[in-house]
Design a protein that fits this description.
99 residues; mainly beta; two-stranded antiparallel ribbon; 6 strands
Length: 99
């Protein structure tokens, strides 16, 4: 989530970490600046194959709308391992200042 009166989400760029799953990884992206949200989703083309390690899944590209400050927050993460069990995530907020 973010404050669309300060920043506008322009683009979601898929990154290299997903390439470890293969060439045709299903990737969902939805930007809705009016609701202050975006959705990113992906799945392995091979149900029994997952990812291990660190890397960047996607980059969110914002553009300024007006001067001010806002917080960018990850409000929900859900993921399963290849066995279907839930995977826990820790998320953090980012503070943005537009001058």
């Amino acid at each position: 989530s973010f404050d669309p009166s300060v920043i506008r989400l322009k683009e979601i760029v898929r990154r290299e970490f997903l390439n470890r799953l293969g060439e045709n990884v299903p990737f969902l992206e939805n930007i809705d600046n009016s609701s202050r949200m975006c959705t990113i989703g992906f799945s392995s083309p091979d149900i029994g194959k997952g990812l291990r390690g660190t890397g960047t899944i996607a980059v969110l590209v914002f553009e300024p709308v007006s001067q001010g400050e806002c917080i960018i927050s990850v409000t929900q993460v859900s993921a399963n391992n290849p066995s279907g069990e839930s995977v826990d995530f820790t998320t953090r907020q980012s503070r943005v200042v537009v001058r």
